[in-house]
Amino acid sequence: MTSAQINQVNKPAPPVSLLVQVALRAIGVANLFLLLMLVAIIVAWCWGIPYTQKQVFRLEERATELKEKKQLLQLDLKQIVSDENTVRLNIFYEHLGEKKYVEQQLKTVFFLATESGIAIKTGEYQLSKNNAGQYFTYRIQLPVKGSYTQLRKFVEQVLLTIPFASLDEISFKRETINGAVIDSKIVFTLFVTDEPASSSGNIE
Description:
By secondary structure, the protein is an alpha+beta fold. The chain contains 5 helices and 6 strands, in the order H-H-H-E-H-E-E-E-H-E-E. InterPro entries: Transl_elong_EF1B/ribsomal_bS6.
């Protein structure tokens, strides 16, 4: 081996910084920046896609869970409303009067009118059947005359004495502007059944 060859072999390698400088000159700073950006995008893509898919999957699971809870809540609310309606319906049937005693209830109405100090003319009465509910309504329309206090007392006493009665209509008409006596039309409805009191109701 010649001395020139020996010197070539023993020649030290160029430093790393020099190689970097050479590389920068070869590809250019702008191209290197673009290359680094491309590498960063690839890394972000490889890491971000699985992460995003995982988050989307979690959101879908959460949405499904909330939807199921909402459905269960709606079912619970419907059941509560249904139970409340059943309770109210049972109470209604439990308080129905007996159809065979409507004449007696009518006498009670007239008695309360006398007690309240008002005069009743001949009224109109109508018995009807509610086929859907399987109960009867006894409509009592009364033309009455008295003071406002007397009329109010009469209506209150009827509703307190006959729990299955309702006030459907009441109208007033004075004979004179300053007159104390009022002509009035009062309409009550009695809710009755032809079944015995012990078996008239209880909807399950």
